[in-house]
């Protein structure tokens, strides 16, 4: 596998503040790689080190096998789509796209062809003579994308490019970005704090928190088998509850929470003592479906939240201090549970993820 | 306010139609003074000299002011930035008369500037740096610098810093980034600064009077001389001409401003 970007133990501080703390990752050529994390976790800083606007304090950074220390941004085989697009306001869409080629002194003919191609790729051919002020947010976003892609970079860097768009347009642009990435085959590094966005588009996701990488995996693995409590809580909806780990045998652990005692399977590296489990809302079964679950409990419905396609129940388990949120898809019709009902709840032993430590 | 502004203007306007003959003002309606102004080559020279001086001063102010504004913008040490801003602002704080005497001393044949030029062998004998157009231009540029620097500085600070990064990311070096992005986007500040410098230079009176040595006969001086001769019609027509030239200049600059802001 050919690697386009490699970070090896990279650290970056601003004054005393460590913005990026000893991170290592590599991105395969032609893949869609996302840096996902909450605001201020160091995603942009990581991206800006890749493009050359910030310099690592220590560690190595290679792009297409080349060490990047001391290489100026305008000499790197990367191009960036900025958070607020940073289009040149005094140039038309076509001039914006042509800028990077003019700087390279591309022959006129070739330049005209490539600009037209890039604008067609993002579906903006008719708007080539408009200035950014006369374009909508979605259109400006496309110009920014075309302007970066026309340079045929080895790696395209995108810093929350959809952050300023409304929800509908975002979803549409996500699909489009994925299509464009497949079409041009360029390596994309995509920064976002929106887990849904990262999930839908990425081949691999690095989840960051406080300057560190918590997990790098495929979207599905990150969702199904989060490596840390932070990842479990940050991605998707999970009940995170403290409990006692009583014993561990192989990949099975016996845990206890108040008067409740049960088994969790598929455990990775837990030791007896304090711990937490993360149990996704949709992995909890209710009523008749719970009857066949290996682990069964009784619970009282404390609250019902109707959200259209899904219904959420706040459940208090009868024999312990656990309060859980469960989610059921709503297919229309059918009676919902109501507040005060007593129901059976259950889950598979491998549904919760167990994390050791207080 | 309107009255205070309009009344002298109207009076002046009225006087511009009177006649001045043998040291006396004759209150008869005539366009004589206007036609003299328009067709007499003496006045053409005066107007030409006025415009030329204002243009030179404006260009020189921009040539010195733009780099200063850019430096002020790029310095990221707030303490130094404040001091430089104060330094650039300082000419305004000094009275015209004091400033003019200062320049007379500096630029005179035995002054420090000539002394340095002679000392380092740049010149063989003292150059005439004052009591001519050169002295006037230097002194006016000095005062107008803040009026040019601050509009440019403010339009530079309004630039999105990401634009420079975007240019650099697309392969542009410092100079290309400046030429293609920073400079075009700072043009509104340049035009605003030029407008102020040009119109102030048109109306400058004390500096040409003190540093021109009688060789820089600009319109305001001409108007002043006419009033000392109590030749009110000539003074009035000169004043009107100045007003019209200023208004044309302001209108032209406004057009330019709109054009430079067009996106
Ligand atoms: N130039 C700088 N000087 C000082 N601190 C900085 C600088 N740039 C970033 N930081 C700090 O580093 C941390 C990480 O910043 P970064 O921009 O990488 O966050 P982010 O993950 O992109 O967040 P967001 O999602 O809000 O954009 C933040 O706490 C920020 O305040
Ligand atoms: Mg950011």
> What name does CATH use for the topology of chain B?
MetI-like fold
Average predicted confidence as pLDDT of chain B: 90
Query: Which outline of chain B best applies?
Result: globular
Tell me which CATH architecture of the largest domain in chain A applies here: 3-Layer(aba) Sandwich
The major pleated sheet of chain B works out as: 2 strands, antiparallel
Can you walk through the features of this model?
- The complex is a heterodimer of chains A (358) and B (263).
- Chain A has 358 residues and is α+β, with helices and mostly antiparallel strands.
- Helices cover 25% and strands 37% of the residues of chain A.
- Chain A folds into 2 domains: 3-228, P-loop containing nucleotide triphosphate hydrolases (Rossmann fold); 237-356, OB fold (Dihydrolipoamide Acetyltransferase, E2P).
- Chain A has helices at 43-51, 93-103, 108-121, 137-149, 167-184, 195-201, 219-224, 229-234, 288-291; strands at residues 3-14, 17-28, 32-36, 58-63, 66-67, 78-81, 155-159, 187-192, 204-209, 212-217, 238-249, 252-257, 260-264, 273-280, 285-286, 295-306, 310-317, 323-329, 342-347, 353-356.
- In chain A, a hairpin with a 5-residue loop joins strand 17 and strand 18.
- In chain A, helix 2 packs across helix 3 (108-121), helix 2 (93-103) runs parallel beside helix 4 and helix 3 (108-121) crosses helix 4.
- Chain B is mainly α.
- Chain B has a single domain, classed as Orthogonal Bundle (MetI-like fold).
- Chain B is globular.
- Chain B starts with a helix and ends with a helix.
- The mean pLDDT of chain B is 90.
- Chain A binds chain B through residues 51, 53, 72-74, 78-80, 82-84, 86-90, 99-100, 103-104, 131-133, 147-148, 151, and chain B through 160, 162-163, 165-173, 176, 180-181, 184-185, 263.
- Residues 14, 17, 19, 37, 39-45, 193 of chain A line the site of adenosine-5'-triphosphate.
């Amino acid at each position: 596998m050919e690697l386009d970007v490699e970070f090896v133990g990279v650290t970056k501080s601003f004054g005393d503040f460590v913005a990026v703390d000893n991170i290592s990752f590599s991105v395969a050529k032609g893949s869609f790689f996302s840096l996902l994390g909450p605001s201020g976790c160091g995603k942009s800083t990581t991206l800006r080190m890749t493009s050359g606007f910030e310099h690592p304090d220590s560690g190595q950074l290679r792009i297409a096998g080349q060490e990047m220390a001391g290489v100026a941004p305008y000499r790197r085989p990367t191009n960036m789509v900025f958070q607020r697009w940073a289009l040149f306001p005094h140039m038309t869409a076509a001039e914006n796209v042509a800028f990077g080629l003019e700087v390279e002194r591309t022959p006129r003919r070739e330049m005209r062809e490539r600009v037209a191609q890039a604008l067609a790729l993002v579906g903006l051919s008719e708007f080539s003579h408009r200035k950014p002020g006369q374009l909508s947010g979605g259109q400006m976003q496309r110009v920014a994308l075309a302007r970066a892609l026309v340079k045929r970079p080895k790696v395209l860097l995108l810093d929350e490019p959809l952050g300023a768009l409304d929800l509908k347009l975002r979803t549409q642009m996500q699909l489009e970005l994925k299509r464009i990435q497949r079409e041009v085959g360029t390596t994309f590094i995509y920064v976002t704090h929106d887990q849904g966005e990262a999930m839908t588009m990425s081949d691999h996701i690095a989840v960051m928190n406080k300057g560190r990488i918590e997990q790098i995996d495929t979207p599905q693995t990150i969702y199904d088998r989060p490596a840390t409590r932070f990842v479990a809580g940050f991605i998707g909806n999970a009940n995170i509850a403290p409990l006692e780990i009583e014993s561990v045998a192989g990949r099975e652990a016996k845990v206890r929470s108040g008067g409740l005692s049960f088994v969790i399977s598929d455990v990775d590296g837990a030791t007896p003592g304090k711990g937490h489990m993360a149990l996704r809302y949709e992995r909890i079964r209710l009523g008749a479906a719970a009857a066949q679950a290996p682990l069964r409990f009784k619970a009282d419905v404390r609250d019902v939240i109707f959200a259209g396609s899904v219904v959420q129940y706040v459940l208090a388990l009868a024999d312990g201090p656990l309060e859980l949120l469960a989610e059921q898809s709503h297919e229309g019709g059918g009676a919902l549970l109501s507040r005060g009902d007593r129901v059976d709840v259950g889950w598979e032993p491998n549904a919760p993820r167990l994390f050791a430590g207080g | 306010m309107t009255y205070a502004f309009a009344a002298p203007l109207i009076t002046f306007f009225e006087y511009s139609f009177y006649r001045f003959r043998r040291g006396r003002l004759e209150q008869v309606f005539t366009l004589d003074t206007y036609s003299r102004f328009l067709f007499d080559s003496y006045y053409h020279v005066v107007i030409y000299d006025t415009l030329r001086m204002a243009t030179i001063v404006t260009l020189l102010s921009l040539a010195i002011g733009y780099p200063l504004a850019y430096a002020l913008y790029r310095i990221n040490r707030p303490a130094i930035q404040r001091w430089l801003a104060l330094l650039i602002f300082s000419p305004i704080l000094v009275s015209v008369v004091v400033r003019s005497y200062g320049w007379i001393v500096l630029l005179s044949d035995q002054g420090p500037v000539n002394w340095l030029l002679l000392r380092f062998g740049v010149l063989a004998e003292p150059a005439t740096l004052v009591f001519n157009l050169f002295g006037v231009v230097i002194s006016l540029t000095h005062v107008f610098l803040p009026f040019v620097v601050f509009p440019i500085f403010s339009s530079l600070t309004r630039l999105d810093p990401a634009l420079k990064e975007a240019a650099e990311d697309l392969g542009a070096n410092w100079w290309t980034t400046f030429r293609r992005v920073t400079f075009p986007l700072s043009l509104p500040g340049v035009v605003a600064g030029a407008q102020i410098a040009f119109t102030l230079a048109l109306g400058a009176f004390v500096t040409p009077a003190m540093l021109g040595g009688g060789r820089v006969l600009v319109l305001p001086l001409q108007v002043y001389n006419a009033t000392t001769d109590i030749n009110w019609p000539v003074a009035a027509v000169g004043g009107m001409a100045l007003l019209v030239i200023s208004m044309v200049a302001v209108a032209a600059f406004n057009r330019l401003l709109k054009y430079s802001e067009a996106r």
